[in-house]
Write a structure and sequence with these properties.
globular; alpha/beta
């Protein structure tokens, strides 16, 4: 089995966030790989990874980084694949804004899809949506996932309807 999605993080300190992506992909039975690569500490390895990912069969890259968060942009500069950036609020972060802006404000021609701060699960969901555009089975998975989300709201409203308050108006 070859990976379709590559999850990359700047260091293993980002794993607490990035594991959300791995858990979702695993739940959806999407083959993935997960590695730490630093744009600052091992730039040669980032270059090699970025230039070879498509040749290895990777379809989507999820790249998470904190602080200056150059990793997603550096990868996007060197690969034809879609890159989804996950800004991470790290110990050296300026409340996460440095990471958000570093990933979000890419120059024209080098797009990085950017999810919310620490939003690795949404990155994995977006990766599934990208894969689903050319795969009917994956599209069925996505439709089922969205239906389950809607079902949770229906159930929540059923529970809310059971709550009693003196001035609550009944439907």
């Amino acid at each position: 089995m070859n990976p379709l999605v590559s999850i990359i993080m700047g260091s293993t300190s980002d794993l607490t966030v990035m594991k959300q992506a791995a858990e979702f992909l695993n739940e959806m039975k999407i083959p993935f790989e997960i590695n730490a690569l630093s744009a600052h500490r091992v730039p040669e390895e980032v270059v090699a990874f970025s230039k070879n990912a498509a040749l290895r069969g990777i379809k989507v890259i999820i790249a998470g980084a904190g602080g200056a968060a150059h990793l997603p942009g550096v990868i996007a500069a060197m690969t034809p694949l879609p890159v989804i950036g996950v800004p991470i609020k790290s110990s050296n972060s300026i409340d996460g804004w440095d990471s958000i802006l570093s990933i979000l404000q890419m120059p024209s021609g080098i797009p990085v899809a950017t999810v919310a701060l620490d939003g690795a699960k949404n990155a994995a969901i977006l990766a599934l949506q990208i894969l689903a555009t050319g795969d009917p089975q994956r599209m069925d998975q996505m439709v089922k996932f969205k239906a389950e989300l809607a079902g949770k709201i229906v159930k929540a409203n059923e529970e809310l309807n059971k709550t009693e308050y003196e001035f609550k108006v009944k439907k």
